[in-house]
Design goal:
6 strands, single chain, mainly alpha, 592 residues, two-stranded antiparallel ribbon, four-stranded parallel β-sheet
C-alpha cells in the first residue's frame, strides 16, 4: 500500500499540471461564475412545481411568472457561460501575452456570447396573425448549448490574442480618450471572432443539416451513453476521488468535461417529471450528492464512525471537529485532519465508497422506481436532504439514503479501525516518552541550585532595573511584537478555495482572531475563479489546500498588483481554522 502511495506522490506534479490546464480552468471558472443562475432559477422552479406534490394548487399566473423567471435565467445559461468562460480564459491568456499587450476581457466576453448564438441558435420566419415574424429557436440557448459556448469562448480569445499580439487593431490619435480608443481597437478582433464562428455555422448547417450545437451532441452521443452505464459512472467517481486523494482537486479535472452532459440530463429529467413520467437519467448535476455524499470520498458517515468507534485521541478529536462541516459537504477538516489525503490506509475506502454509492443509485433509478435527480439544489445542502428534494420527495429516496449510509460505514470501518490501531500505538509511545522526559526534568529540577536573583539584577542598567521593578501586567509589549502588530493593522485578507466553503472557515477564524486581539483586519471568503474582479481590493490572498496547485498562476497576478500570496499546507490550514489567535499570529509571521 505504501508503494502505491509513493507512486502516486511521484506523479502528483503531472496531475497538478492537468488541473492547471487553462482550458479546463476556464470551463470550471466560467461555469462557477454562472452558478447563481442555476441555484436561483431552481428556487423559482421549486415554487412552481413542488406545492402540487402535496396537493396545493397555486394560482396559474404565479406558476407562469415563476416559469418565466426560470426560462429567462436557466434557459439562457449557455449564452452566459460563453461570456464567463471567455472572461476567465482571457485572464489566463493575458498572463502569456507579450509585455504591454493586454486583451480586453469585457470585449472578449461580449464577442463570445455573440459567437455562441451564431453556433447554437437557429433563426427562422413564421406567420403570426397574418404577419411574418423572425423567430429564434431557444432550445440551444440554455444547457444544451454549453459545448457551443466553450468553443465560441476559446475561438474568440485566440482570435483576440492573434490580433492584439500582432497589432492588428485600429489605432486612433493619442488625443482620443482611452475608452473610445479601446472600442476601436476591439473592432478587428471582435469582427474576426464573429465571422469565423459565422463561417463554421454556415459550413456545418450546409454539410450536416444541423446547427453546430446539435452536431456536437450527435458526435458525442456514444460518450453520453457510455458515461451513464455502471462502468461509466464508476470511472467518473473513481477519478474524482483518486485525484483528491493525491492532493489535486478532483472535481476541477473531471467535472468540466461532463458538466454539459450532467446539466442536459437533469433538464431532461425535469421535463419528464413535469410531464408525469419517470425521470431515468442517472448521470445528472446533483449525482454529486451521491458520489460525494458528504464530500469527495463519500465521507458523510466517517466523523460519526470516528467519534463512536475509534480509540485514538487524534481521530476522536477530528471526528468532533469535522462532523458539522462534513454534513454540509465541507470535508477538508476531515481530509487534512485525519488525514485521509495520501493516507495509505484510506485509499481503498476513499475511492470505493463513492463508486458503490453511484452504482446503487443507478440500480434504484433503473429498477426500484426512484426518480433520477431533477431539481438543482446548492452543493452545500446536506446530502440526505438534497437527495430527498431532488427526487421530488420520494420516500424510496430516504430508503436509498439509509442504505448508502450503511454501505459507506461498512466500507470505511475496517480501514479506520486499522488506522486507529496504528495511531493508538503511536500515542502510547509518545506518552511513554513524555513520561520519561517529565521524570528526568523533575529530577534535574530537584537537584538544581536556586537562581541567584540578586546577581542578575545588580548588573542591569538603572533604567532597565526601574522598568523591571514594575509589575508584569504593567510591562510594555516588546518592540518586536509592536512592529508585528503594526504590520497587520488595517489588512484586508481574501481566502480562496474551490467552492467558498473551506475558505469561509479560515476567513471566520481570522475575523474572530482580530476581535480577540484588537486588530483591525477584514477578511472575506471566495471561490477561486471568481476572484479576478475583486482581488485588487485586498492586501493578502490565502489559497486553501485544494486550490494550491494554482499558486504559480496566482503569483503572477498578485506580484503584478503588489498583493501578498500565502498558501498553507493541508493540516496547517485546518489547524488555523480552529485557532483564531493562531491565525493572526500566522499572518504576522508570514508578512515579512
Amino acid at each position: 500500500m505504501d508503494a502505491i502511495v509513493k507512486m502516486l506522490e511521484k506523479h502528483q506534479p503531472f496531475f497538478e499540471k492537468i488541473s492547471r490546464n487553462i482550458y479546463l480552468q476556464a470551463i470550471k471558472d466560467g461555469f462557477l461564475g454562472c452558478m447563481p443562475i442555476v441555484l436561483t432559477s431552481s428556487i423559482f422552479l421549486l415554487i412552481a412545481t413542488l406545492p402540487g406534490v402535496v396537493g396545493i394548487t397555486l394560482p396559474q399566473p404565479l406558476i407562469d411568472w415563476c416559469n418565466k423567471l426560470y426560462n429567462f435565467t436557466m434557459g439562457v445559461m449557455g449564452i452566459m457561460v460563453a461570456g464567463t468562460t471567455a472572461k476567465n480564459f482571457t485572464a489566463s491568456m493575458n498572463r502569456r501575452m507579450p509585455a504591454g499587450k493586454v486583451l480586453n476581457d469585457g470585449s472578449t466576453m461580449v464577442a463570445a456570447q455573440c459567437s455562441m448564438l451564431l453556433l447554437a441558435v437557429t433563426q427562422f420566419t413564421t406567420k403570426f396573425n397574418g404577419s411574418e415574424l423572425s423567430v429564434f429557436d431557444c432550445t440551444s440557448m440554455g444547457t444544451r448549448g454549453l459545448f457551443s459556448a466553450y468553443i465560441a469562448a476559446f475561438i474568440t480569445v485566440w482570435v483576440y490574442k492573434f490580433c492584439v499580439s500582432r497589432d492588428l487593431t485600429i489605432k486612433l490619435p493619442k488625443e482620443v480618450p482611452g475608452a473610445i480608443a479601446q472600442n476601436f481597437r476591439d473592432i478587428i478582433p471582435f469582427g474576426g471572432a464573429v465571422i469565423i464562428c459565422g463561417i463554421i455555422d454556415v459550413v456545418v448547417r450546409n454539410l450536416m443539416g444541423v446547427p453546430f450545437s446539435e452536431l456536437l451532441i450527435k458526435l458525442l452521443s456514444p460518450l453520453f451513453t457510455a458515461a451513464e452505464t455502471y462502468p461509466g459512472l464508476i470511472l467518473i467517481q473513481a477519478a474524482t476521488a483518486f485525484f483528491w486523494f493525491i492532493g489535486v482537486h478532483g472535481p476541477s479535472i473531471v467535472q468540466p468535461g461532463i458538466d454539459p452532459i450532467r446539466l442536459a440530463n437533469q433538464a431532461e429529467n425535469l421535463q419528464v417529471l413535469l410531464a408525469g413520467g419517470h425521470p431515468a437519467h442517472s448521470l445528472t448535476f446533483n449525482m454529486s450528492l451521491v458520489g460525494e455524499f458528504g464530500g469527495t470520498g463519500a465521507t458523510f458517515i466517517v466523523p460519526l464512525l470516528l467519534i463512536l468507534f475509534m480509540k485514538s485521541k487524534q481521530l476522536k478529536a477530528v471526528g468532533k471537529a469535522s462532523i458539522v462541516p462534513v454534513a454540509f459537504a465541507v470535508n477538508e477538516p476531515l481530509l487534512f485532519g485525519a488525514p485521509m489525503i495520501l493516507n495509505p490506509y484510506m485509499l481503498i475506502p476513499f475511492v470505493a465508497a463513492g463508486c458503490v454509492n453511484v452504482s446503487v443509485a443507478k440500480f434504484f433509478i433503473d429498477n426500484v422506481g426512484m426518480n433520477g435527480f431533477s431539481f438543482v439544489v446548492p452543493w452545500a445542502t446536506p446530502a440526505p436532504i438534497g437527495i430527498f428534494i431532488t427526487t421530488n420527495f420520494q420516500l424510496i429516496a430516504l430508503v436509498f439514503v439509509a442504505i448508502i449510509i450503511l454501505l459507506d460505514a461498512i466500507i470505511y470501518l475496517p480501514f479506520l479501525k486499522a488506522y486507529d490501531k496504528l495511531l493508538c500505538d503511536q500515542e502510547a509511545e509518545r506518552a511513554a516518552e513524555l513520561g520519561l522526559e517529565s521524570d528526568g526534568a523533575a529530577t534535574i529540577a530537584a537537584n538544581a541550585p536556586a537562581p541567584v536573583v540578586e546577581q542578575a539584577t545588580a548588573s542591569v542598567e538603572p533604567t532597565a532595573a526601574a522598568a523591571d521593578s514594575k509589575p508584569v501586567a504593567d510591562q510594555p509589549e516588546p518592540a518586536a511584537d509592536a512592529s508585528a502588530k503594526k504590520d497587520v493593522d488595517g489588512l484586508k485578507v481574501l481566502v480562496l478555495c474551490a467552492g467558498a466553503g473551506t475558505s469561509a472557515m479560515l476567513a471566520n477564524a481570522i475575523k474572530e482572531g482580530a476581535a480577540q486581539t484588537g486588530e483591525n483586519i477584514a477578511s472575506s471568503a471566495g471561490a477561486y475563479g471568481q476572484h479576478t474582479a475583486i482581488m485588487d481590493q485586498y492586501d493578502v490572498i490565502v489559497l486553501a489546500p485544494q486550490v494550491r496547485s494554482y499558486y504559480n498562476d496566482m503569483k503572477a497576478d498578485t506580484d503584478r498588483l503588489g498583493i501578498k500570496l500565502l498558501a498553507p499546507r493541508g493540516k496547517e490550514y485546518i489547524d488555523l481554522t480552529r485557532d483564531p489567535a493562531g491565525a493572526i499570529k500566522w499572518l504576522r509571521e508570514n508578512l515579512d
